[in-house]
């Protein structure tokens, strides 16, 4: 009764590890999502609005990052720089902005042809004012939706890296808990050590997607009937 989710082979309480591991998942998810959206939105805005050679250059850079395998890249970075939570966040942020940039660019390409942009230009507004005062507010709904998607992917990736044994050795995460169960060779017998963190990952990621879906319906009322 003192250990609701049982203990590890070393007698450590799994419920306490679960609660502590939630901190790592939320920190990695939130910080990575914010960084990804900041980079992706700005690159998408500049690429779609300026066009020409700058658009071609930024999109080719995006294509290069799209061709980089995700988890192997993160593992290589961790092997070179050392394993830490902030290194994991940095490595994921460096790659995950690529999809956001593509989506934002597509929105900007259509928005910059709208009458309100022409009116702002006629009134004497400069390119930066048009970009960040007129166009940027109109892409924020889809940018915030990308926050939810990026956060979910970051949580899954951090758990995957922890399960592979490349997580921060000084931090406890849900993926690390499953890895410890696997390394102890009792994974298939001690189900109470493996199932709870796995369920926690599923519940948290699903809740993030549900929040993103609900926000999408608020932003776009036409989806309310779907």
Features:
226 residues, mainly alpha, 8 helices
Q: Can you walk me through this structure?
A:
- This protein has 226 residues and is mostly helical.
- Helices cover 77% and strands 0% of the residues.
- The protein has eight helices and no strands.
- It has helices at residues 14-50, 52-66, 70-81, 85-111, 115-122, 127-163, 174-183, 191-219.
- The chain is elongated and about 70 Å long.
- The protein starts with 13 loop residues before the first helix and ends in a 7-residue tail after the last helix.
Helix content: over 70%
Q: Profile the largest sheet.
A: none
- The overall strand count is 0
What's the rounded overall pLDDT mean? 87
Radius of gyration: 21 Å
User: Which class best fits the helix and strand makeup?
Assistant: mainly alpha
Total of DSSP H or I helical runs spanning 4+ residues: 8
Ends distance: 46 Å
Low-confidence stretches: none
What spatial form do the alpha-carbon principal axes imply?
Answer: elongated
Condensed summary:
It contains eight helices and no strands.
Topology:
Elements: H1 14-50, H2 52-66, H3 70-81, H4 85-111, H5 115-122, H6 127-163, H7 174-183, H8 191-219
């Amino acid at each position: 009764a003192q250990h609701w989710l049982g203990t590890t082979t070393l007698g450590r309480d799994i419920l306490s590890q679960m609660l502590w591991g939630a901190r790592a998942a939320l920190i990695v998810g939130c910080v990575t999502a914010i960084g990804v959206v900041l980079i992706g939105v700005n690159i998408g805005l500049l690429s779609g609005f300026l066009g020409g050679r700058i658009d071609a250059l930024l999109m080719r850079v995006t294509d290069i990052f799209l061709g980089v395998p995700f988890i192997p890249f993160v593992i290589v970075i961790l092997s070179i720089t050392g394993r830490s939570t902030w290194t994991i966040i940095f490595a994921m942020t460096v790659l995950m902005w690529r999809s956001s940039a593509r989506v934002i660019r597509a929105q900007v390409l259509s928005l910059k042809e709208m009458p309100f942009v022409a009116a702002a230009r006629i009134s004497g507004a400069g390119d930066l004012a048009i970009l960040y005062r007129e166009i940027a507010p109109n892409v924020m709904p889809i940018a915030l939706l990308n926050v939810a998607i990026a956060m979910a992917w970051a949580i899954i990736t951090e758990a995957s890296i922890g399960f592979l044994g490349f997580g921060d050795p000084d931090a406890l995460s849900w993926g690390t808990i499953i890895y410890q169960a696997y390394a102890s060779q009792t994974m298939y017998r001690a189900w109470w050590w493996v199932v709870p963190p796995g369920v926690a990952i599923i519940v948290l990621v699903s809740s993030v997607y549900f929040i993103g879906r609900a926000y999408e319906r608020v932003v776009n009322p036409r989806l309310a009937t779907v």
